[in-house]
Amino acid sequence: MSPPPPLEGNDQLVTGIITAGWAIALIVLLIVRGSVPSDVRWWIWTCAAGLGLGLFGLWYLPRLKRSRTRAAEARARDQSAPRDSGSKTVSSTETPGRSTRS
Question: Which residue from 58, 60, 36 is spatially nearest to 46, judged by alpha carbons?
């Protein structure tokens, strides 16, 4: 019995949930910013970076999937099309200008 094929995850859903988590963390830290010690305020920038990268991922993922689909379709077309090597070589028994008969 062969193993089942791998499942495709919903990349945009996962990226959206993680981005929302960074957004919530950023909002919470901005609300309580006055009570956060100054030596751990770098977490605000960490959340901002996470949010920015998540938004970039949400923008980029659809483009990546479309390009991968186009590449797979192009490979499928190339494999199904008859191949012409374009070679103009002549076998040794068919050398032009020379007769193989004596």
Answer: 36
The closest of 68, 71, 61 to 19, measured between CA atoms, is 61
User: Which position has the token pair 């910013």?
Assistant: 33
- Tell the residue number behind the tokens 């830290």, with chain if given: 29
Write down how long the chain is. 102
DSSP string covering 4-29, please? PPPPPP-HHHHHHHHHHHHHHHHHHH
pTM across the whole model? 0.66
Report d(CA 19, CA 102) in Å as an integer.
Answer: 83
End-to-end CA distance of the chain, in Å?
Answer: 65
CA 82 to chain centre: 29
Is residue 6 very low, low, confident or very high in pLDDT (cuts 50, 70, 90)?
A: confident
